[in-house]
Amino acid sequence: MNTLLLAQDPTLADFGRDPWWLVLIKIVFAFVFGLLATLLGVWFERRVVGYMQVRPGPNQVGPFGLLQTLADGLKMAFKEDILPKAADKVVYFFAPVISVVCAVTALSVIPFGPMVSIFGHRTPLQVTDVPVAVLVLLACSSLAVYGIVLGGWASGSTYPLLGGLRSSAQMISYEVAMGLSIVAVFMTAGTMSTSGIVAAQGDATRLTIAGVEIPAPGWYAILLLPSFIIFFIATVGETNRAPFDLPEAESELVAGFMTEYSSLKFALFMLSEYVAMVTMSAVTTTLFLGGWRAPWPITLWADANTGWWPMLWFFGKVLLLVFVFVWLRGTLPRLRYDQFMRFGWKVLLPINLVWILVLAGLRSIEDWQSRDRLLATAVGAGVLLLATLLWPSRKPASKPTPQEQADNRPYGSFPLPPLDLQVPPSPRTKRVVAEREPANIATGSDSQEV
Amino acid sequence: MNTSTVLAAAGQVSGGEEVTFWILAPLALIGAIGMVWARNAVHSALFLVLTMLCLGVFYVLQAGPFIGMVQIIVYTGAIMMLFLFVLMLVGRDASDSLIETLRGQRVAAVVLGLGFAGLVGTGLYRALNGVTAVGLDQANAEGNVQGIARLLFTKYVLAFELTSALLITAAIGAMVLAHIERRKEDKMDQVATMKARFRPGNYPGPKPGPGVFATSSSVATPARLPDGRLTDRSTPAILPQRELTAEETTLKGTER
C-alpha cells in the first residue's frame, strides 16, 4: 500500500520530461478549466444565492439555466466599448489583461492529480512544478493587484480611483496574513513545491489503538487549523469577495475600479474575478485539504488515489470551497473599511505570528524523548492556562440609575420628559370616530370595488 | 536539482535560456529607458515594474528560483505597489516639466551616465572574461531554498538579524513620525458627543441656514433665530457679517 502510494506521487524529477504536445495539452486544459469554471461558477453562484434568498435564480437559458452565463458573455461582447475621455488609453487597455493573465497563470502549478498515463506517457497531472511553486502562486496574486489598481487609476474618474486605492491597501495587507499562514505549511511539509506538499499530506501517521489501526489525519487543515482558518479568510480578502468586496462596494463606489469599464474589458475583469476565486479554492485545497487525495471513507477503497479518480476528488473539494465563497457572500454584510483593516493587521497577523512561534516550538522538541516532550508541552499549556485564569479582569463600573443621572444634570440642561411619562389617549380619536358617517354598504357582488 | 542547475554549473547555456534571454533583455532595457523618459510618473513606475519582472525571470534562469520569486513578490508586488499608491494619491497629472533649471544639466547627466555604464561594463567584462563559474552545484546541492536558508541561518545569521533590526527600526520610526498622539480623554465617543451636544447653554438643534428669516439670501447674512435675534452660527467664520440696514430694506419706490 505504501509503495503504491509513493509510486503515484510525482516528485520534482518527474517534471520537465514531457514532449511538447503533452505540455500544450496540459496548458490548454488548465486554461479551459479556468474558463469553464467561470462559466459554471457564475451560474452556480447565482443559483445558490437564489436558493438562499428563496427565489429560483437564472432558469430560462438552457437546462437549469446553465447557459445563462454564456448568453450574458455573448451579449457583453456586442456592447459598445466605451473609452472615457480622461482615460489613460494604454494602461486602461492593459489593466484587465493583467488581471486575467495573473489569475490564469496561477493554475499552472496546481496539481490536479497523481501520475497518469496519457498516450503511453507517464506524466503528473500538473502543468509544471518548481521548487518554489507556492511562491509562484503568491507572485501571481501579488501581481494581480496591478490589474485592479491600474484599471482604477487609468479610468480617470473618482470612484474607480478610490476603488483602486482601497484594493491596493487591502490586497497588500491580506497578502501578509496569507504568506504567514503558508509559512506554517512550509515548516510542516519541508518543501515549497505544490506536488511535494500534497505528497506530505498523504503519509499520515497511523495510530494503533486496541489493535485497530486508525489513520490519523494528514491534512494540514486539521494539523494546522489556525493557519487554515486565517489562510481562508485572507483568501476571501485577496479575491475581493464579499464580505471583503470593498474595492467594488456598490453602495459606496458604484462599481469601484470597474465603474468605467464596459463590453469585453468588463467581461475580462469579471472573468479574472471568478478565475481567481476558483484558483484560490484550488490553492487552499492543495495546501490544506490534501490536494487530489481522497477523503477518509473513500480511502477504504484501495484504488482511490490512483489513475484519474483523484481529479474527481480534487474537483469535489474545489467545488465545496467555491460553495463556501458563495455562502459567505449570501450570508455576511460588507465590513466597514477601517474594521476590515483593523481585522487584518491587529487580529489575523498577531494570531498568525504566535501560532508560528508555538509551531516552531513544537517542531524543535520533536526529537526529544516522549516523556520530556510531554512535560515541555504540559508546562507550556499550564502556564498559558494559569495566565488565562489569573488575568486581571476589568470590573465594569456600576452604572448610575436613570433617576440618578437625571438628578445629576447641571442647571439649565435640556428639558427632560418625566421618566414615568404615560401618554394619555388623544381625545381627538374618539371624536373622529363619532363624527364619521356610517358606511353605506351595498349588497351584491357586482358593486364590489377593488 | 533540475537540468538548468546542471547546465549553469557546467557553464553552458541551454537553447531555451538563450531564447528567453534575448526576448527579455531588450524588454528590460526598454523598461529601464522608458522609466527615465516617461513624462508621467505612473508610466515611469510601470516601466520600472517591467524591468523588475524581467530581472526576476533572469534570476530564475540563472538557477536561483527563490531569489527570482522573491524579487517579483517583494519588489514588484509590494514595494512598487506602494510607489504607485503614493503616485496615485499625488494625482494623475503629476507630469514632469521640461524646463531645465540648471543649464546643460541634461547633457552632463547623459555623458556621465554613459561613461559610468561604459566603465562598469568594461570592468565587469575584463574581470569575468574567460572565468568559468564553479560551486553552483555545491551551493544548490540540497536544493536552492535549503542552500539559501542554511547560509542565512548559519554563516550570515548576525548580518541577517542586524538587517531585520534595521528594517524594524525604520518601520517603527515611520509609524512614530506619522502617529498623531491623542490622549484618551480627548477621544470623543458617541456618549461624549451626545453629552457635549446637550450640555447647558448649547443649542442642540441643527444650525440655522443663512438667510433664513432675513432680507437677503446671501450666505454672509446671519440667520435669525425663532425669537428674532440674529445668530452668527450660520455664517462662516472668515466671512464679514453683513446685515442690511433699515434704509436698504425700505422700498426704493421702483414698484410704482
CATH class of the domain at 13-90 in chain B: Mainly Alpha
CATH architecture of the domain at 13-90 in chain B: Up-down Bundle
Strand content of chain A: under 5%
Question: Residue-averaged pLDDT of chain B, rounded?
Answer: 80
Folded structure, characterized:
The complex is a heterodimer of chains A (450) and B (256). Chain A contains 17 helices and 4 strands. Chain A is mostly helical and 450 residues long. In chain A, helix 4 runs antiparallel to helix 5. The termini of chain A are far apart. Chain B has 256 residues and is an all-alpha fold. Chain B has a domain of 78 residues: Four Helix Bundle (Hemerythrin (Met), subunit A). Helix content of chain B is 58%, strand content 2%. Chain B contains 10 helices and 2 strands, in the order αααααααααββα. Chain B has a two-stranded antiparallel ribbon with strand order 1-2. In chain B, strand 1 and strand 2 form a beta hairpin. In chain B, helix 3 packs antiparallel against helix 4. The N and C termini of chain B lie far apart (104 Å). Chains A and B meet through helix 5 and helix 6 of A and helix 3 and helix 4 of B.
In summary, what is this structure?
The complex is a heterodimer of chains A (450) and B (256). With 450 residues, chain A is mainly alpha-helical. Chain A is built from 17 helices and four strands.
